[in-house]
Amino acid sequence: MHALPQDRPGVRIARLRRERHLTQRGLSDLSGIPYNTLIKIEQGKLEATPYAVARCAHAMNVEVSTIMGQPYKDDLRADELDVLIRPIRESLDVYDLGADPDIAPRPLQTLHEESEALCAAVRAGEIKKVASDVAGLIEETTTAAHMHGGSDGWLILASLYRTSYDVATKLGYADLAQLSLARLDWAAQRASDAVFGGAYQYFRALTYLREGKLRTGQRLIDLGLRTIEQADSSQAREVVKGQLHLGGSVMAGRAHDEAQALGHLAEAGNIADRIGESPTVLWMAFGGTNVGVHRVSVLAELDKYDKAVETANEIVIPHDWPKSRTSHHWAEVARSQMWLGKLDASFESLLKARKIAPQQAKYHATVRETYAGLEAAHRRLPNTFLSYGSWLSTQT
Fold first, then answer.
1. Boundaries of every domain in the chain
2. What is the pTM (predicted TM-score) of this model?
3. Most buried among 43, 219, 230, 311, by the most CB within 10 A?
4. Is residue 389 a contact partner of residue 1, using CB atoms and an 8 Å limit?
Protein backbone atom coordinates (compact mmCIF):
# COMPACT_ATOMS: atom_id res chain seq x y z
CA MET A 1 0.00 0.00 0.00
CA HIS A 2 1.44 3.35 -1.00
CA ALA A 3 1.80 5.98 1.69
CA LEU A 4 1.49 8.66 -0.99
CA PRO A 5 -1.62 7.84 -3.07
CA GLN A 6 -0.99 9.56 -6.37
CA ASP A 7 0.09 8.69 -9.88
CA ARG A 8 3.78 8.86 -10.53
CA PRO A 9 5.37 10.45 -13.61
CA GLY A 10 6.03 7.03 -15.17
CA VAL A 11 2.35 6.09 -14.87
CA ARG A 12 1.28 9.40 -16.39
CA ILE A 13 3.79 9.05 -19.23
CA ALA A 14 2.40 5.61 -20.06
CA ARG A 15 -1.19 6.86 -19.94
CA LEU A 16 -0.47 9.90 -22.12
CA ARG A 17 1.48 7.74 -24.56
CA ARG A 18 -1.42 5.35 -24.98
CA GLU A 19 -3.86 8.23 -25.42
CA ARG A 20 -1.71 9.40 -28.31
CA HIS A 21 -1.59 5.89 -29.80
CA LEU A 22 2.19 5.74 -29.40
CA THR A 23 4.16 2.58 -28.74
CA GLN A 24 6.99 2.65 -26.26
CA ARG A 25 9.38 2.39 -29.19
CA GLY A 26 7.64 5.31 -30.87
CA LEU A 27 7.88 7.54 -27.81
CA SER A 28 11.50 6.52 -27.35
CA ASP A 29 12.28 7.60 -30.91
CA LEU A 30 10.40 10.91 -30.56
CA SER A 31 11.83 11.81 -27.17
CA GLY A 32 15.37 10.51 -27.52
CA ILE A 33 14.99 8.58 -24.25
CA PRO A 34 16.55 5.09 -24.61
CA TYR A 35 13.91 2.40 -25.11
CA ASN A 36 14.94 0.31 -22.09
CA THR A 37 15.08 3.41 -19.89
CA LEU A 38 11.57 4.43 -20.94
CA ILE A 39 10.22 0.96 -20.15
CA LYS A 40 11.73 1.08 -16.65
CA ILE A 41 10.33 4.58 -16.06
CA GLU A 42 6.83 3.51 -17.04
CA GLN A 43 7.08 0.41 -14.86
CA GLY A 44 8.26 2.44 -11.86
CA LYS A 45 11.59 0.62 -11.73
CA LEU A 46 13.43 3.82 -12.57
CA GLU A 47 12.59 7.38 -11.55
CA ALA A 48 12.08 9.88 -14.35
CA THR A 49 14.77 12.56 -14.31
CA PRO A 50 13.77 16.16 -15.10
CA TYR A 51 15.50 15.69 -18.47
CA ALA A 52 13.44 12.58 -19.27
CA VAL A 53 10.20 14.26 -18.20
CA ALA A 54 11.00 17.31 -20.34
CA ARG A 55 11.81 15.18 -23.40
CA CYS A 56 8.64 13.09 -23.04
CA ALA A 57 6.50 16.19 -22.52
CA HIS A 58 7.93 17.78 -25.65
CA ALA A 59 7.47 14.60 -27.67
CA MET A 60 3.80 14.28 -26.63
CA ASN A 61 3.08 18.03 -26.80
CA VAL A 62 1.99 18.36 -23.18
CA GLU A 63 3.15 20.54 -20.29
CA VAL A 64 5.73 19.17 -17.86
CA SER A 65 3.24 19.93 -15.07
CA THR A 66 0.80 17.47 -16.68
CA ILE A 67 3.33 14.67 -16.26
CA MET A 68 4.32 15.81 -12.77
CA GLY A 69 0.70 16.10 -11.62
CA GLN A 70 0.93 19.73 -10.49
CA PRO A 71 -0.69 21.55 -8.89
CA TYR A 72 -1.58 19.05 -6.17
CA LYS A 73 -5.16 20.29 -5.99
CA ASP A 74 -6.56 17.82 -3.45
CA ASP A 75 -3.80 18.61 -0.97
CA LEU A 76 -4.08 22.35 -1.60
CA ARG A 77 -7.80 22.09 -0.88
CA ALA A 78 -7.15 20.16 2.32
CA ASP A 79 -4.69 22.82 3.47
CA GLU A 80 -7.13 25.60 2.47
CA LEU A 81 -4.61 27.07 0.06
CA ASP A 82 -6.66 26.69 -3.11
CA VAL A 83 -9.10 29.42 -2.00
CA LEU A 84 -6.21 31.91 -1.89
CA ILE A 85 -5.39 31.55 -5.59
CA ARG A 86 -8.45 33.29 -7.04
CA PRO A 87 -7.92 36.56 -5.11
CA ILE A 88 -4.35 36.67 -6.43
CA ARG A 89 -5.61 36.21 -9.98
CA GLU A 90 -8.15 38.98 -9.48
CA SER A 91 -5.53 41.36 -8.07
CA LEU A 92 -3.44 40.86 -11.21
CA ASP A 93 -6.41 41.80 -13.42
CA VAL A 94 -6.76 45.42 -12.22
CA TYR A 95 -3.24 46.52 -13.19
CA ASP A 96 -4.34 48.96 -15.93
CA LEU A 97 -7.59 50.30 -14.46
CA GLY A 98 -6.01 53.28 -12.74
CA ALA A 99 -6.58 54.26 -9.12
CA ASP A 100 -9.48 52.51 -7.38
CA PRO A 101 -11.72 55.21 -5.84
CA ASP A 102 -12.70 52.83 -3.03
CA ILE A 103 -9.10 52.31 -1.89
CA ALA A 104 -7.19 54.83 0.25
CA PRO A 105 -3.61 53.59 -0.01
CA ARG A 106 -1.10 54.03 2.78
CA PRO A 107 2.20 55.87 2.18
CA LEU A 108 4.63 54.30 -0.28
CA GLN A 109 7.20 53.74 2.48
CA THR A 110 4.69 51.62 4.40
CA LEU A 111 3.81 49.64 1.28
CA HIS A 112 7.52 49.13 0.57
CA GLU A 113 8.10 47.79 4.08
CA GLU A 114 5.16 45.38 3.79
CA SER A 115 6.36 44.24 0.36
CA GLU A 116 9.82 43.52 1.78
CA ALA A 117 8.25 41.64 4.69
CA LEU A 118 6.43 39.37 2.23
CA CYS A 119 9.69 38.71 0.37
CA ALA A 120 11.28 37.72 3.67
CA ALA A 121 8.32 35.48 4.50
CA VAL A 122 8.65 33.66 1.17
CA ARG A 123 12.31 32.98 1.93
CA ALA A 124 11.29 31.75 5.37
CA GLY A 125 8.95 29.23 3.74
CA GLU A 126 5.76 30.86 5.09
CA ILE A 127 3.78 30.22 1.92
CA LYS A 128 0.27 30.33 3.39
CA LYS A 129 0.84 33.69 5.08
CA VAL A 130 2.21 35.21 1.89
CA ALA A 131 -0.60 33.76 -0.25
CA SER A 132 -3.12 35.23 2.21
CA ASP A 133 -1.64 38.73 2.21
CA VAL A 134 -0.27 39.40 -1.26
CA ALA A 135 -3.53 39.97 -3.17
CA GLY A 136 -4.75 42.81 -0.96
CA LEU A 137 -1.34 44.46 -0.97
CA ILE A 138 -1.16 44.26 -4.78
CA GLU A 139 -4.54 45.99 -5.10
CA GLU A 140 -3.58 48.73 -2.64
CA THR A 141 -0.20 49.31 -4.28
CA THR A 142 -1.74 49.34 -7.75
CA THR A 143 -3.86 52.31 -6.72
CA ALA A 144 -0.89 53.99 -5.00
CA ALA A 145 1.34 53.57 -8.07
CA HIS A 146 -1.29 55.08 -10.37
CA MET A 147 -1.87 57.97 -7.96
CA HIS A 148 1.81 58.86 -7.47
CA GLY A 149 2.98 58.11 -11.00
CA GLY A 150 6.67 57.94 -10.04
CA SER A 151 9.06 55.03 -10.29
CA ASP A 152 8.96 54.19 -6.56
CA GLY A 153 5.36 53.00 -6.66
CA TRP A 154 5.89 50.93 -9.80
CA LEU A 155 8.98 49.28 -8.29
CA ILE A 156 7.04 48.28 -5.17
CA LEU A 157 4.31 46.87 -7.39
CA ALA A 158 6.90 44.98 -9.47
CA SER A 159 8.24 43.43 -6.26
CA LEU A 160 4.74 42.33 -5.25
CA TYR A 161 4.15 40.81 -8.68
CA ARG A 162 7.39 38.90 -8.15
CA THR A 163 6.01 37.64 -4.82
CA SER A 164 2.82 36.42 -6.49
CA TYR A 165 5.09 34.62 -8.97
CA ASP A 166 6.93 32.98 -6.06
CA VAL A 167 3.67 31.78 -4.51
CA ALA A 168 2.33 30.47 -7.81
CA THR A 169 5.57 28.63 -8.57
CA LYS A 170 5.84 26.99 -5.17
CA LEU A 171 2.23 25.81 -5.29
CA GLY A 172 2.50 24.54 -8.88
CA TYR A 173 0.31 27.07 -10.73
CA ALA A 174 2.38 27.61 -13.87
CA ASP A 175 -0.22 29.78 -15.63
CA LEU A 176 -0.50 32.12 -12.63
CA ALA A 177 3.28 32.35 -12.45
CA GLN A 178 3.45 33.42 -16.10
CA LEU A 179 0.70 36.02 -15.58
CA SER A 180 2.55 37.40 -12.55
CA LEU A 181 5.69 37.79 -14.63
CA ALA A 182 3.82 39.61 -17.38
CA ARG A 183 2.64 42.09 -14.75
CA LEU A 184 6.17 42.38 -13.32
CA ASP A 185 7.48 43.33 -16.75
CA TRP A 186 4.66 45.86 -17.17
CA ALA A 187 5.50 47.56 -13.85
CA ALA A 188 9.27 47.44 -14.43
CA GLN A 189 8.85 49.20 -17.78
CA ARG A 190 6.89 51.99 -16.10
CA ALA A 191 9.66 52.34 -13.55
CA SER A 192 12.26 52.33 -16.37
CA ASP A 193 14.33 49.94 -14.27
CA ALA A 194 16.78 47.77 -16.21
CA VAL A 195 17.69 45.74 -13.11
CA PHE A 196 14.10 44.56 -12.70
CA GLY A 197 14.01 44.06 -16.48
CA GLY A 198 16.92 41.65 -16.24
CA ALA A 199 15.33 39.93 -13.24
CA TYR A 200 12.13 39.53 -15.25
CA GLN A 201 14.01 37.65 -17.98
CA TYR A 202 15.60 35.43 -15.31
CA PHE A 203 12.26 34.45 -13.77
CA ARG A 204 10.76 34.04 -17.23
CA ALA A 205 13.60 31.71 -18.20
CA LEU A 206 12.93 29.59 -15.11
CA THR A 207 9.34 29.03 -16.22
CA TYR A 208 10.67 27.60 -19.48
CA LEU A 209 13.18 25.48 -17.54
CA ARG A 210 10.31 23.95 -15.56
CA GLU A 211 8.39 23.36 -18.79
CA GLY A 212 11.38 21.64 -20.40
CA LYS A 213 11.66 24.26 -23.16
CA LEU A 214 15.38 24.61 -22.72
CA ARG A 215 16.31 26.33 -25.98
CA THR A 216 13.85 29.15 -25.36
CA GLY A 217 14.95 29.32 -21.73
CA GLN A 218 18.59 29.76 -22.74
CA ARG A 219 17.65 32.48 -25.20
CA LEU A 220 15.88 34.30 -22.36
CA ILE A 221 18.99 33.98 -20.19
CA ASP A 222 21.02 35.56 -23.00
CA LEU A 223 18.44 38.34 -23.36
CA GLY A 224 18.53 38.96 -19.63
CA LEU A 225 22.32 39.26 -19.68
CA ARG A 226 22.07 41.84 -22.46
CA THR A 227 19.31 43.70 -20.63
CA ILE A 228 21.19 43.90 -17.34
CA GLU A 229 24.17 45.50 -19.05
CA GLN A 230 21.95 48.52 -19.69
CA ALA A 231 21.56 49.13 -15.94
CA ASP A 232 23.80 51.51 -14.01
CA SER A 233 26.64 49.87 -12.12
CA SER A 234 25.40 48.64 -8.74
CA GLN A 235 25.41 45.64 -6.45
CA ALA A 236 21.85 44.84 -7.57
CA ARG A 237 22.98 44.72 -11.19
CA GLU A 238 25.77 42.29 -10.32
CA VAL A 239 23.39 40.12 -8.28
CA VAL A 240 20.95 39.79 -11.19
CA LYS A 241 23.79 39.15 -13.62
CA GLY A 242 25.18 36.42 -11.37
CA GLN A 243 21.75 34.87 -10.89
CA LEU A 244 21.19 34.83 -14.65
CA HIS A 245 24.40 32.84 -15.03
CA LEU A 246 23.22 30.41 -12.33
CA GLY A 247 19.92 29.96 -14.14
CA GLY A 248 21.81 29.41 -17.37
CA SER A 249 23.99 26.78 -15.71
CA VAL A 250 21.01 24.65 -14.68
CA MET A 251 19.39 25.20 -18.08
CA ALA A 252 22.50 23.95 -19.86
CA GLY A 253 22.93 21.11 -17.38
CA ARG A 254 19.41 19.86 -18.03
CA ALA A 255 20.17 20.02 -21.77
CA HIS A 256 23.29 17.93 -21.00
CA ASP A 257 25.60 20.68 -22.31
CA GLU A 258 28.36 20.33 -19.74
CA ALA A 259 30.73 22.94 -21.19
CA GLN A 260 28.10 25.67 -21.23
CA ALA A 261 26.83 24.73 -17.77
CA LEU A 262 30.30 24.93 -16.23
CA GLY A 263 30.98 28.16 -18.09
CA HIS A 264 27.93 29.81 -16.55
CA LEU A 265 28.94 28.52 -13.10
CA ALA A 266 32.42 29.98 -13.52
CA GLU A 267 31.02 33.40 -14.46
CA ALA A 268 28.67 33.34 -11.47
CA GLY A 269 31.55 32.33 -9.22
CA ASN A 270 33.65 35.26 -10.40
CA ILE A 271 30.84 37.69 -9.60
CA ALA A 272 30.28 36.12 -6.17
CA ASP A 273 34.00 36.48 -5.41
CA ARG A 274 33.77 40.20 -6.19
CA ILE A 275 30.61 41.13 -4.28
CA GLY A 276 30.36 38.46 -1.56
CA GLU A 277 27.15 37.11 -0.06
CA SER A 278 24.11 39.25 -0.92
CA PRO A 279 21.13 37.27 0.37
CA THR A 280 18.66 40.19 0.61
CA VAL A 281 19.55 42.08 -2.58
CA LEU A 282 16.38 41.57 -4.61
CA TRP A 283 15.92 38.52 -2.33
CA MET A 284 17.84 36.29 -4.74
CA ALA A 285 20.26 34.94 -2.10
CA PHE A 286 23.13 35.38 -4.53
CA GLY A 287 26.69 34.66 -3.42
CA GLY A 288 29.21 31.88 -3.03
CA THR A 289 26.74 29.65 -1.20
CA ASN A 290 24.22 29.88 -4.02
CA VAL A 291 26.92 29.12 -6.56
CA GLY A 292 27.80 26.03 -4.55
CA VAL A 293 24.26 24.70 -4.30
CA HIS A 294 23.72 25.37 -8.01
CA ARG A 295 26.85 23.33 -8.72
CA VAL A 296 25.14 20.43 -6.93
CA SER A 297 22.04 20.91 -9.10
CA VAL A 298 24.07 21.10 -12.31
CA LEU A 299 26.02 17.93 -11.53
CA ALA A 300 22.74 16.14 -10.83
CA GLU A 301 21.27 17.39 -14.13
CA LEU A 302 24.37 15.99 -15.85
CA ASP A 303 23.66 12.62 -14.17
CA LYS A 304 26.86 12.93 -12.12
CA TYR A 305 25.12 12.04 -8.89
CA ASP A 306 28.25 10.90 -7.07
CA LYS A 307 29.96 14.24 -7.69
CA ALA A 308 26.78 16.08 -6.77
CA VAL A 309 26.69 14.39 -3.36
CA GLU A 310 30.44 14.92 -2.84
CA THR A 311 30.02 18.61 -3.63
CA ALA A 312 27.03 18.90 -1.30
CA ASN A 313 29.10 17.41 1.54
CA GLU A 314 31.62 20.22 1.12
CA ILE A 315 29.06 23.03 1.36
CA VAL A 316 28.41 24.74 4.68
CA ILE A 317 25.03 26.48 4.55
CA PRO A 318 25.06 29.68 6.66
CA HIS A 319 22.57 29.57 9.54
CA ASP A 320 20.90 32.75 8.27
CA TRP A 321 20.58 31.59 4.67
CA PRO A 322 16.97 31.65 3.35
CA LYS A 323 15.06 28.60 4.55
CA SER A 324 13.32 28.23 1.19
CA ARG A 325 16.65 27.89 -0.62
CA THR A 326 18.09 25.57 2.03
CA SER A 327 15.05 23.29 1.89
CA HIS A 328 15.23 23.20 -1.90
CA HIS A 329 18.93 22.28 -1.68
CA TRP A 330 18.26 19.30 0.58
CA ALA A 331 15.53 18.12 -1.79
CA GLU A 332 18.09 18.19 -4.62
CA VAL A 333 20.63 16.31 -2.48
CA ALA A 334 18.00 13.70 -1.57
CA ARG A 335 17.31 13.04 -5.25
CA SER A 336 20.99 12.48 -6.03
CA GLN A 337 21.40 10.20 -3.02
CA MET A 338 18.40 8.15 -4.13
CA TRP A 339 19.88 7.68 -7.59
CA LEU A 340 23.10 6.45 -5.98
CA GLY A 341 21.14 3.91 -3.95
CA LYS A 342 21.89 5.71 -0.67
CA LEU A 343 18.30 5.36 0.45
CA ASP A 344 18.70 6.02 4.16
CA ALA A 345 20.76 9.14 3.48
CA SER A 346 18.20 10.27 0.92
CA PHE A 347 15.36 10.01 3.43
CA GLU A 348 17.43 11.93 6.00
CA SER A 349 17.81 14.72 3.44
CA LEU A 350 14.05 14.72 2.83
CA LEU A 351 13.54 15.08 6.58
CA LYS A 352 15.87 18.09 6.57
CA ALA A 353 13.95 19.66 3.68
CA ARG A 354 10.72 19.23 5.64
CA LYS A 355 12.10 20.49 8.95
CA ILE A 356 13.55 23.64 7.43
CA ALA A 357 10.52 24.73 5.34
CA PRO A 358 7.58 22.35 5.78
CA GLN A 359 5.01 24.32 3.77
CA GLN A 360 7.33 24.52 0.80
CA ALA A 361 8.56 20.92 1.03
CA LYS A 362 5.03 19.54 1.02
CA TYR A 363 4.36 20.92 -2.47
CA HIS A 364 7.89 20.51 -3.84
CA ALA A 365 7.85 18.18 -6.86
CA THR A 366 11.37 16.89 -6.16
CA VAL A 367 10.42 16.00 -2.57
CA ARG A 368 7.36 14.08 -3.70
CA GLU A 369 9.02 12.22 -6.54
CA THR A 370 12.07 11.34 -4.44
CA TYR A 371 9.78 9.99 -1.71
CA ALA A 372 7.92 7.94 -4.33
CA GLY A 373 11.24 6.59 -5.63
CA LEU A 374 12.29 5.54 -2.15
CA GLU A 375 8.92 3.92 -1.57
CA ALA A 376 9.30 1.95 -4.80
CA ALA A 377 12.63 0.50 -3.63
CA HIS A 378 10.64 -2.36 -2.02
CA ARG A 379 12.42 -2.12 1.29
CA ARG A 380 10.96 -2.55 4.74
CA LEU A 381 9.76 0.96 5.48
CA PRO A 382 10.08 2.45 9.00
CA ASN A 383 7.10 4.15 10.59
CA THR A 384 8.81 7.53 10.23
CA PHE A 385 8.96 7.01 6.46
CA LEU A 386 5.29 6.08 6.21
CA SER A 387 4.29 9.04 8.37
CA TYR A 388 6.25 11.30 6.00
CA GLY A 389 4.12 10.04 3.12
CA SER A 390 0.96 10.58 5.14
CA TRP A 391 2.10 14.15 5.83
CA LEU A 392 2.62 14.77 2.12
CA SER A 393 -0.90 13.65 1.28
CA THR A 394 -2.95 15.02 4.19
CA GLN A 395 -3.77 18.32 5.81
CA THR A 396 -1.04 19.97 7.84
1. 1-69, 215-320
2. 0.85
3. 311
4. no
